[in-house]
Design brief:
Elements: H1 3-54, H2 60-68, E1 78-83, E2 88-91, H3 103-112, E3 114-119, E4 122-131, E5 134-142, H4 145-180, H5 182-193, H6 211-260, H7 265-295, E6 305-308, H8 309-323, E7 328-333, E8 344-347, H9 349-365, E9 371-379, E10 382-388, H10 396-399, H11 421-431, E11 435-441, E12 445-453, H12 457-461
Parallel strand pairs: 7-9
Antiparallel strand pairs: 1-2, 1-5, 3-4, 4-5, 6-8, 9-10, 10-12, 11-12
Helix pairs in contact: 1-4, 6-7, 7-11, 8-9, 9-11
């Protein structure tokens, strides 16, 4: 069921319930009022007849004739007068006795002084009538044709009005719900036009400030993120294909030349060495891509635990030196930590090692002496690690792009690489709720600063 129909039915149902309750109150209020008024009228006419009988000494036969010819006589009127001993003093002769008074009924009237009841469709009343020191019992019954007819007309009018009001409510509900949900219909139509090739389309909020406009703005923000993600993905795939094409083309070219042209053993060794370098480059690229993908995961999917940064740095240093024995890495503490907690953070040891290796290798690679100085300092619950070199520095035009994936600036001619390391490092640091900054002066070296929150066992337990 569509929301438009659901809202219309809900609105109509609520209005119908309220209108039905109002109609029932009106109807039963009028019905009770009619009944009470008719009982009063019936009693008054019975008293009048009793006065004529007892006070005016009108003969019962004469009294019957008078009331048979009276225009004010109630339809199917039946009046009877008894004394307290159940002796009948007067009864409307010529009429069917519908009340059928009994001794028990008379006794009840004497006890209760006055009773109201129904006999089929007749309203009946019985009451004690005192007259000159004696008590008499008067009963009367009649049918309120006029009142019941008015009540029928009221019931008919209420039913017609109820049906007409519900019909108008349904029509109004359809119109109002269509108007209220018109922006949603436009939104659905617009969303249907959005595809992977048309992510630039946006939903028009119409300048409104209601919930539907809020939904449209939220949806547009989601589209902005999706478009940015798609563009980044396209760029990422393009960069990967470019990075893979170069070493693969070199490997294929070397192998084709070796296959069709005879060479000496030394030349084959040189060819194998070149192919090995290209294969290592491909291996490093694939490893970096895997690390980049892992660093892009949601934090809930990566295992974090307390990690000592000094141990991770030493492990990263050993791995770098094994890869290139000409590199030099010095790790220094600005001051000795007061306790071991100063070098402990909550993180993923593997990812932190990858980040530190990238920063160390980057410093060594662009320094003439292939040296990186790592300095560890502490303060205000933070651990700060600086990776400094005395290398060529980074040109001002390249500074804002150093963390962009696959970007290689003017320094790429000084050392090989694929442009993933620094962007990967930034993702890893952000994943650990840390910050990374850079200071560089052309020809005077570069310093990368990583700031991570210290892990305290007492605060973690708290």
């Amino acid at each position: 069921m569509k929301i438009r129909l659901k809202l219309t039915l809900l609105f109509a149902g609520l209005f119908a319930a309220l209108l039905l309750a109002f109609s029932l109150v009106i109807y039963f209020s009028n019905a009770n009022q009619r009944e009470e008024e008719y009982f009063k009228r019936l009693k008054q006419l019975a008293i009048t007849k009793a006065n004529l009988l007892l006070e005016a000494k009108v003969e019962p036969a004469v009294l019957q004739v008078i009331y048979e010819n009276s225009l004010s006589t109630l339809p199917q009127e039946e009046v009877a007068v008894f004394d307290t001993s159940f002796n009948l003093l007067y009864h409307d002769v010529g009429k069917v006795d519908k009340l059928k008074e009994t001794r028990g009924m008379i006794d009840s009237i004497i006890t209760l002084k006055e009773i109201h009841f129904y006999v089929e469709d007749l309203q009946a009343i019985g009451f004690v009538y005192p007259f000159r020191g004696k008590s008499y019992v008067v009963t009367a019954a009649a049918k309120d044709d006029y009142g019941l007819d008015k009540l029928r007309h009221l019931r008919y009018n209420l039913l017609i009005g109820f049906a007409a009001a519900i019909l108008l409510t349904l029509l109004a509900g359809i119109l109002f719900s269509r108007k209220a949900l018109a922006p949603v219909s436009k939104m659905v139509e617009k969303v249907g036009e959005i595809s992977a090739n048309r992510l630039d389309l946006r939903i028009d909020t119409g300048g409104r400030r209601d919930e539907i406009a809020e939904l449209a703005r939220t949806f547009n923000q989601m589209l902005d993120r999706l478009e940015s993600s798609f563009d980044a993905q396209k760029q990422f795939v393009s960069n990967i294909s470019h990075e893979l094409r170069t070493p693969l083309a070199a490997i294929i070219a070397e192998l084709e030349i070796s296959a069709f042209k005879g060479r000496t053993v030394e030349e084959y060794r040189e060819t194998i060495q070149l192919i090995l370098q290209d294969a290592q480059r491909l291996s490093r690229l694939s490893n970096d891509l895997l690390d980049l993908a892992k660093a892009s995961y949601d934090q809930s999917g990566i295992h974090f635990r307390p990690v000592r940064l000094d141990e991770v740095l030493l492990d990263a240093r050993q791995s770098i030196l094994r890869m290139n024995g000409s590199y030099r890495v010095d790790i220094r503490f600005e001051k000795e930590p007061e306790d071991s907690d100063g070098v402990v953070v909550r993180g993923n040891e593997y990812l932190l090692k990858v980040a530190f290796m990238n920063l160390i290798e980057n410093a060594c690679k662009f320094s003439d002496d292939h040296r990186c100085v790592v300095t560890i300092s502490f303060g205000e619950g933070k651990t700060v690690i600086r990776f400094a070199d005395d290398g060529i520095g980074i040109p001002a035009a390249d500074v804002e792009y150093v963390f962009t994936p696959f970007y290689r600036g003017q320094n790429k001619k000084h050392a090989p690489g694929n442009g993933i390391g620094l962007s990967l490092t930034q993702k890893i640091v952000a994943l650990h709720q840390g910050k990374i900054g850079m200071e560089s002066r052309l020809g005077d070296g570069t310093t990368f600063t990583v700031t991570l929150a210290q892990y305290r066992e007492d605060s973690a337990q708290a």
